[in-house]
Amino acid sequence: MKVVNLIPSDAALEPRLVGEITADFFVPAYQRGYRWGRAEVTALLDDIWLNVKQAYYLQPVVVKKMGDEWELVDGQQRLTTLYLIFEYMRSQGLQRDGANYTLRYESRLNSAAFLANPDRDRREDNIDFFHISEALDCISTWFEAHGKGRQQHVANKIHGALFENVKVIWYEAPADLDGATLFRRLNVGRIPLTDAELVKALLLSRAAQVPGPADRTAEIAAQWDAFERDLRQPELWAFITGEAQESPTHISLLLDTLAGGERGTGRPLFLTFETLRPQIENGPDGPLRFWNKVVDLHSLVMGWFEDRDLFHKIGFLVADGMQFADLLELSQGKLKSAYAAELRALIAGRLKLSETELRELTYQDRERASRALLLMNVEVVRRRQHSYERYSFRQHAAGDWSLEHIHAQNAEGLNRAWQWQEWLSLQSAVLARRGEVDEDGKRDLLDDVARVLASPPVTQSDFRRLEPRLIALLSSGSDAQYADVDAIANLALLHCGDNSALSNSVFAAKRDAIIELDREGHFIPVCTRNAFLKYYTGSDENQVFFWSIADRRNYLDAMVQELADYLRPEGATT
Question: Cys-Cys link to 400, which of 145, 372, 496, 550 (CB 3.0-4.6 A)?
């Protein structure tokens, strides 16, 4: 994937409080007019109100020096709305002063005057006047919703936040860069500027100023793009993050980790940039010292990824919910062998099972049973000698996994005609292949099922009449009825689909479907595939139509063997 740089390396970047913006802005003709609606205006006010006591960043304001004015390349919608908020508080006597900046429009000459002195009677004159008036109405409604007696209090809080906590990233583009070109670059697909883009621009800008004979900006830029490509490998990204979906930038994992704080959707906007900026600006060699940290962290991740043992242990822990930053902290100051031992202990601590407790797990303890089965699948692949195969954490992250009964004894969860029809079709297809059951009973039942299927839709009464007869014949020769259907020996990991008819099917019908899915290239966890292919059962005990007590016993013994390194001693509680 080609890495697109939104910001040139010689950009000037700095945080700036909204209340301290003092400038005359020129909005060029290549931009559309003000178009924010009630949703955007209300969201901005809500965000400011929720952050009146803490730092809060808005998207960057991109400007370019133009004589005594600033060409406003990006940020018109935000700055216009903030201007209207200031002016509303001033006009209502809630604050003494309005905004400290002005806005002038190249192609909409009357809009500046209307913005400074809105006349609601003229709101229908043009589209700009309409949207400005709508925004003012929304601002008025928002303040009034707090109650007449509290508007002054709310205005004081909002005004204070704009001068103390609410910031923009002030991005000054180089004088020789065409504003229209930069505007298009920033607005293609409306991908917002990210922390990573801002850090990169600041890093390269500062690196160019490092004294010495060699300019390392080209080298850093090339390394940056190479790291981004490395981290975009789907298997690597899923292994270290537990995510299957791509992010706007993947190097952000390294930057966010160096900046600290929790990753994810709740991470404050531009926290990473704000945290890392002092490191990059710390003295003449600050940029290079910072970049060396990124290089070291990238090398560590690649080393983990390339080591099959570490890959599987770390990948399991991440898939089980552990954060990359915590795994990084655990590795500090340790040799690889010592770190691998720490990971083994950490996995055992999350599993929290003795052999007896493992054997007694049931469907009702879904979390621990799912964890045990995932670890079994990962360990089977990890422990293969002389193999390059790896467990696919990408496929795992992309799936919605559930505990499936290998053999289901009833179809109680089915309640729709199409589900009844599909279930009857699946079971009858299996019964038709079985030769060791009562032939007369088998033929009569198949004929009965065929008549019902020939006249859709299937009724509930027909389905409930046929279901027990099919299960009785399909379970003949099996001792499944003597085993707990919810025991872990009858459970496997499967992708959650909408095919509830298959989920409630007997073993042989599920086996046929899984073989077909595997043939089509679907990801079937290795132990799930092994179970349905009777890999764990000796040939003298093997049969393909039911999941017997012998099958369950052998499957469970294999599970204990694969997880032996992580099981705690009997009676231990920690």
Answer: 496
Could you tell me which of 479, 544, 472, 475 has the C-alpha nearest to residue 511?
544
* 128 CB-side CA count, 13 A: 18
Residue whose token pair is 């003949």: 476
Distance CA 298, CA 296 (A): 5
pTM to 2 decimal places: 0.75
Q: Determine the distance from the C-alpha atom of residue 280 to the mean position of all C-alpha atoms in its chain, rounded to a whole number.
A: 29
Q: Distance between CA 288 and CA 542 in Å, rounded?
A: 64
Residue 470: CA atoms inside 13 Å, Cβ hemisphere, count?
32
Distances (CA, A) of 51 to 37, 170, 179, 268: 22, 20, 32, 11
- 209 near 12, Cβ under 8 Å? no
> Per-residue pLDDT tens for 333-365?
999 999 999 999 999 999 999 999 999 999 999
Residues 152/94, Cβ–Cβ less than 8 Å = yes
Given a contact cutoff of 8 angstroms between Cβ atoms, the answer to whether 509 and 518 are in contact is no
Are 193 and 78 in contact by the 8 Å Cβ rule? The answer is: no
99 confidence band (pLDDT: 50, 70, 90): very high
| Residue keyed to tokens 């002389």 | 386
Tally: H helices and E strands in the chain: 25, 9
Give the whole-angstrom CA distance, residue 53 versus residue 160: 9
H helix or E strand, kind and range, residue 47: helix 38-50
| Residue 5: pLDDT over 50 | yes
For residue 72, report the phi and psi dihedrals to the nearest 5 degrees. Answer: -90, 95
Residue 381 in contact with residue 526, Cβ under 8 Å?
A: yes
Tokens representing residue 566 in the block: 């992580």
For residue 169, the SS3 value is strand
Task: Give per-residue pLDDT as tens, 269-306.
Answer: 788 988 999 999 998 899 999 999 999 999 999 999 99
Which of 284, 171, 305 lies closest to 227, judged by CA? Answer: 305
Instruction: Give the β-pairing of 12-17 and 166-172.
Output: antiparallel
Q: Is 359 exposed, middle or buried (0-12, 13-18, 19+ CB in 10 A)?
A: middle
Contact 524, 518 (CB under 8 A): yes
Residue among 431, 417, 455 at smallest CA distance from 505:
431
CA 504 to the chain's CA centroid = 31
What is the Cα–Cα distance from 430 to 358, expressed in whole angstroms? Answer: 32
| CB contact at 8 A, 413 and 451 | no
Q: How far apart are CA 519 and CA 188, in angstroms?
A: 41
Answer for the pair 104, 24: CB distance below 8 angstroms, yes or no: yes
> CA-to-CA distance for 100 and 19, rounded, in angstroms?
7
Residue 387, token pair as written in the block: 């193999």
Considering only residues 49 and 515, tell me which one the structure prediction assigns the higher pLDDT.
Answer: 49
